[in-house]
Amino acid sequence: MDKKEIIQITNAFLVEEFEADPEKITPDANLKATLDLDSLDYIDLVVVIENNFGFKVNPEDFQGISTFQDFYEYVATRIKQKQLV
């Protein structure tokens, strides 16, 4: 799975699950502010990631994620790690 495909899949489920405005989902946009995430929404986000990409997410992984670009990089890295195992 290449980065473009990761971005397309990610943006599609963010729009569907979090009713996000696709126009506001840009690489430099703040993930939490754009999606208006609270602590329960992060749990939903973890479930959606695990269901769409097939890897386990640790809650502490989100500490370094502030923008959508950070999020895409995180998903791409975890997919690569999963493929190496």
From TrEMBL:
Known role: Carrier of the growing fatty acid chain in fatty acid biosynthesis.
Subcellular location: Cytoplasm
Coarse class of the protein's main subcellular location: cytoplasm
Gene name tied to this protein: acpP
Family the entry assigns: Belongs to the acyl carrier protein (ACP) family.
UniProt-recorded Gene Ontology molecular function terms: acyl binding; acyl carrier activity
Domain Carrier: 1-79
InterPro entries per UniProt: ACP (IPR003231), ACP-like_sf (IPR036736), PP-bd_ACP (IPR009081)
UniProt PTM: 4'-phosphopantetheine is transferred from CoA to a specific serine of apo-ACP by AcpS. This modification is essential for activity because fatty acids are bound in thioester linkage to the sulfhydryl of the prosthetic group.
GO cellular component: cytoplasm
Annotated source species: Chitinophaga tropicalis
Pathway in which the depicted protein is active: Lipid metabolism; fatty acid biosynthesis
Keyword Lipid biosynthesis assigned: yes
PROSITE patterns for this protein: CARRIER
Keywords for the protein's UniProt record, in alphabetical order: Cytoplasm, Fatty acid biosynthesis, Fatty acid metabolism, Lipid biosynthesis, Lipid metabolism, Phosphopantetheine, Phosphoprotein
Modified residues (O-(pantetheine 4'-phosphoryl)serine): 39
Name of the protein: Acyl carrier protein
